[in-house]
Amino acid sequence: MTLQNIGRSVSFAVGRDKPSPAAALLARMGSASRLALSRYGLVAAFLVLWQVSSTHGWVNPAVFPPLNAIASALWKGITGGALVDDIAISLQRSGLAFAAAVVFAIPLGLFMGSIPAVERAIDPILQLFRQTSALALYPVFILLLGLGEASKVFVIFWATIFPLLLSTVGGVKEVDPKLIEMARVYGASRLAIFRRVVLPGAIPSIFVGMRLSATTALLLLIASEMIGANKGIGFQVMNAQYNFQIPLMFAAIVILAALGLIANSAIVLLQRRLCRWSEPVSI
Amino acid sequence: MNLTATRRGEVAIRDLSKSFQISGRRLDVLSQLSLEIRSGECLVIVGASGSGKTTLLRVLAGLETADDGEVLIDGRPVHGVGSERAVIFQEPRLLPWLTVLGNISFGLEVRGEPQAHARETARQYLSLVGLDDFAEAYPRQLSGGMAQRVGIARALAVQPEILLLDEPFGALDAMTKITMQEELSRIWREENVTMVMVTHDIEEAIFLADRVLVLPQVRGGRVKLIDIDLPRPRDRSASAFVRQREVLLREFGLH
Ligand SMILES: Nc1ncnc2c1ncn2[C@@H]1O[C@H](COP(=O)(O)OP(=O)(O)OP(=O)(O)O)[C@@H](O)[C@H]1O
Ligand SMILES: [Mg+2]
């Protein structure tokens, strides 16, 4: 009985016609759209809810303007050039600070992770600095560097170092000692072990650190621009709110979100190209 | 005629002792072990868990230093790792960021061989272990047995005189294990390399070994050396094979 059933279901599966190319394409599109729905469905629902609540007056449209008002403020800001300068200066501040952090923290982290004595010496002061909020130190930096660009770039740099440094150190220390021993058996020098085992092994962690640092950089960018600036996206958010240009305020916030997303996907893209052997973890 | 001067891969272990400190107490793992391993021989080490098999192999590899006594390879005392020895560990220990081919040529590359030449040699050993189609695969795309074969190819590619293996097939299923043992036996005969191999598997020991070294179960007990005089290639179901098995099992007090 059961055997017969199996036989029948097999012949059914084999005997089924091959789907036509058009049907196959439709099926692929169907599954692609299902994938898109499961991935972006909630975002879409959120936007729809926003729009409907705003236009129907379920929320105060003066505080939550409809999406089209935000979009047109965004469009005007960018095409009219009002927001372009702000974007440029913000990119410059955070980009400079992030680049400086990469150049400073990755080599230092590799060095600390490789030599335990160095890590032991640096770790206490690192923990002390890390636990002190960068924003609390911002007034100190202003005193030292003035209210101009230097103090802003520096406070962003300061906060951005730590995630990158700690991830790099962790990445180096977590490289499998068995792999290092294997390399040693083949007579690899210390430098060869570093270059061929430790460094590639630490790269995924370094990328995690870069993504955390990019997020931190944007956070500190906005905070510093809200405190003492007359240009920049963070300034625009505050300024638009003071002047009750709420669509403009949201437009600035949208730009910020977009910057964060772009920075993150740029780093993920770089990681995919650099380490095809591993899949980037999402955070 | 004296051939000893041209012999390669001879190992002499002289009065070797090694102990570890474990929470303040001294544990004598190897005491006064002496043994000669012939060039091209396959010596298999068996013994209960904790009897010091891995420790002995690591001393031979130069990854661990003896407290007393010495190891001579082709007459020269061992200090640390050396290019005439290669180790195959229980885990394949492949570098996940290198392709199969890259992993096999890794040993040659860190020894300073130009990459193009190293990769060429690596290709030969890739064929030897039957993985030609996987040259560009990454380790995460391999099965356990395939990964272990890559590890074996990497070790052979540096053309060692002595191959040290620590339970290389311990993690494999029974079927894969038998295939791998047959492959290893073939490679060993083709490459004319001295092999020292640790295993838990009595059948594996008899299938591969010229001699079996049995480490004592009680500390300070005597080691035993058992000759395996069976024709090669060996047949696991032959009555002589089965008899050898019983002899070895008796050594473990299991019969
Ligand atoms: N690095 C170490 N430090 C301290 N003790 C060690 C160390 N390595 C091994 N030992 C001890 O030496 C003894 C022998 O260990 P070894 O790994 O050589 O055993 P083994 O025969 O390989 O056992 P198994 O069959 O379980 O692999 C064990 O009791 C172990 O606790
Ligand atoms: Mg062991």
From TrEMBL, chain A:
It is found in: Cell membrane. Signal peptide: none annotated. CDD domains: TM_PBP2. It comes from the Bacteria. It holds the Pfam family BPD_transp_1. Its main location: membrane. Keywords: Cell membrane, Membrane, Transmembrane, Transmembrane helix, Transport. Belongs to the binding-protein-dependent transport system permease family. It comes from Chelativorans petroleitrophicus. One of its GO terms (cellular component) is plasma membrane. InterPro entries: MetI-like (IPR000515), MetI-like_sf (IPR035906). The keyword Transmembrane applies. Residues 87-267 form the ABC transmembrane type-1 domain. GO terms for biological process: alkanesulfonate transmembrane transport. It is a multi-pass membrane protein. Probably part of an ABC transporter complex. Probably responsible for the translocation of the substrate across the membrane. This is ABC transporter permease. The keyword Transmembrane helix applies.
TrEMBL record, chain B:
Residues 11-242 form the ABC transporter domain. Keywords: ATP-binding, Nucleotide-binding, Transport. GO terms for molecular function: ATP binding; ATP hydrolysis activity. The keyword Transport applies. Pfam families: ABC_tran (PF00005). InterPro entries: AAA+_ATPase, ABC_transporter-like_ATP-bd, ABC_transporter-like_CS, ABC_transporter_ATP-bind, P-loop_NTPase. Belongs to the ABC transporter superfamily. This is ABC transporter ATP-binding protein. It comes from Chelativorans petroleitrophicus. The lineage of its organism: Bacteria, Pseudomonadati, Pseudomonadota, Alphaproteobacteria, Hyphomicrobiales.
